[in-house]
Amino acid sequence: MLDRTWRHARAAVILAVALTLGGCGYNDIQSSDELAASSWSEVLNQYQRRADLIPNLVATVQGFATQEREVFIAVTEARSRVGQIKVDPSDPASLKQFEDAQRDMGSALSRLLVVAENYPQLKSDANFRELQAQLEGTENRIAVARMRYIDAIRQYNTLVRRFPVNLTAMVFGYGVKPQFSVENEAAIARPPTVNFGAPAPVPAPAETPAK
Hints:
mainly alpha; elongated; single chain; de novo design (two linked rop proteins)
């Protein structure tokens, strides 16, 4: 009899705690935190996709523009720096280091792509154009993933600051998360264009004058 009473009392306490947590936003915090985590994973996936394209892109451009050694070195070194970073999105300093490295990678990659404008044969190469299409798609995905993450963090931070959810967040150790430092959020929302246009037409051979 006593054991049954104890079990009923324990069940009532668990139910009361569950209802209290739900009413104070605990479940909302969990959902928002999970959304932020999954959004961050997608950001990393898309940046990694870009990094994986770079070796083939460099090799292809190098085959047509061997004298652009300085540009190739800059891209390779920037990619190496990105690969060495172990980013912690909950640490503002670590996140800033990651942002800076990715920005440098993007700048180096842009310089590499500019080189292609000086080499018509490279621009018309089928392998290069395939890599260009993959890179354009990846840059689009990066822009979308970043904006989704920025939005997820904004929602999370708003939630854990709002009363009475802020009390629940404080009790369970859910603090404000650092955000991507966005100088121009509207610009990031527009995916960058990676487009060299159609290959230059090959001129038709001159007709031999009739004798």
